[in-house]
Amino acid sequence: MFGGFSLLMALQQQAVWSFSFRRIQTLIQIFLLLSLLSPPSQPLPQHSHSSTTPTQECDEHQQDVCGVCSGDGTSCDLRNGTVSRSLLSSGYHKLLELPVRAQRIRIQELGKTRNYLALRTSSGEPVINGAWVIDRPGRFHAAGTVLTYKRPNEIRSRAGESITAPGPTNQELHLYVIYQQPNITVYYEYILPKENHINTLPETRSSSGILPLEDSDGLGNNDRTPNQVGGANSNEVVGRAHTNEVSSDPTTPGPLPRYSWVAKKTTPCSATCGTGRRQVLFSCVESSTQTTVPAEHCSHTPRPAPQEEDCQLQLCPAFWDVGEWSECSKTCGLGTQYRQVLCRQTRGHRHTNSTVTVVTALCDHTEMPETMTSCQLKICSQWQIRSEWSQCSVPCGVGQRSREVVCVDNLGDVASDEECNVPMRPQHLENCDMGTCTQSWFYTHWSDRCSADCGQGSRSRSVVCMMGQTASLPLDGCEDEDKPGEITPCNLGACTHRTEWYTGPWGQCSSECGNGTQTRGVVCVLHSNSQLEVTSDANCSQFSRPPNSQPCLLKSCGAQWYTTDWSSCSRSCEGGYRVREVQCLGDDLTHSDGCDPALTPAGQEECNTHICLPEIDQSCRDVYFNCVLVVEARLCVYSYYQDVCCTSCSRVFRKKETVRTLR
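Below the sequence we write its predicted structure tokens.
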């Protein structure tokens, strides 16, 4: 009896299990059918290795150097460096060749100079400053991209010229410098795209919100939401149907799915150290073996979109962050430059990296860059002696001698004295002692001509007391009683029919004070038999005619007012003014305060007071008859009414200008 009862219970339990198993199969089959018939709730994602252009936005993520959102910089080759030139000949000099497909181009002159950057194509076609013409800063379309040319013009700006372009270029470009000034340094940077690669994750994860399609023997927990998934080897399935699903038919059995989307790979980390970002990529796998199979096997469900996650490989090593060099302490010759050097480290914080200053001990693994260096902008000019000392200015006693001393630059050209070190200038004047001078009477030869052409006359010579050139002459000094005679008599015979100039007394001085002029009469006289007869001046032409005027000075005038000529009038009509300079000068023509202020000449006066005759401008006329109302309404300040009521508004402007001048 008990055996029959046990068999009956076993058959009933087997029937219940069979019914439950068929119901589960029916529910899963209906769910898969609806998934194939219903469209995906979101578009299929792009492949993770498709690169973004520099103009695409990355939402909250950062672009790497290649312009890829959350990339790691391996999808391109970064090429950068500096090109320096010191002394070149004037003209174009090639610095760099930019290849085809170059992107993110940045060219920067490190420091402001008088040089110019230029671009040409490989065939020599000018792009920027390439045809011996300096272009204005702006945008230039060439080589399939837009090049931005900047040239700072602020006086205090120390930034040099720059050329930038997003690229890619479709032809080769050549960078030149138009050399004007030595010591040019140019920094360049651009990228060349290449194929990306993808790293494989060591661990396996399932996508969120995706049903792992594999064999299962039972139902999962009905409390799980559609966003909760089972692992690759889990026996759980989604307990709540998708919003687009309908209830399953418990009477329709079907096979369970074998494939599902599982996280298998990741893109490289966007940072080699610190905190970066990477994308998790999903692959179609066989549920039982976790073997990757073609994506067509998982076509019953949409591929999950790539998911982002933080990746932190290791802390970035500290590094030395150097600042810009200061200006050279000297404008020429050897000087000193300084810069700031800090120990800094890149650290991750909330999905981003920031650079902070740390203790210098963390940078001990590398040598600290120098904070001070020598510099030389140019060779200083120097003093050069170009002649020997001249002879002494006196034959005896103490005098002076000189030599030529000039300032010469590094090219050998004469420069201004300010270019050299003035306190270090060699002496160009110095005293010279030619020995003790002795005093003695010095005299010239007697004149060859007698003072009278006939009768008694005299000849003369010059006698002066001077220092002797040597001290060995037996001279005792200049005594008046020993002074040689200056006049000696002469007689050329009796006077008969002789002519000579006769002069009258000098007249009064033409000025009561200061410099003036006085005159006298001069006539030619003929001596004949003790008679004097005035004759023609031509008869005395063989003799030098005495002057008939001479300067005179009765007394000094003291301080007087002096004026310059009037300046030109400030206006050509309707009243202007002109000015002149007035100064009080003494007898020595220096500034004095001794002039009478009441007699001060005017320094300004009116001029050209006549009325201006208006110029007739044929293009300036009133278009409307009511321009009087425009003037009364004070509408002439607007350019429109200045055009349509030109005559009336011009009359108002002239009137205001006249009133302003009179004030």
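The chain has a mean pLDDT of 76.
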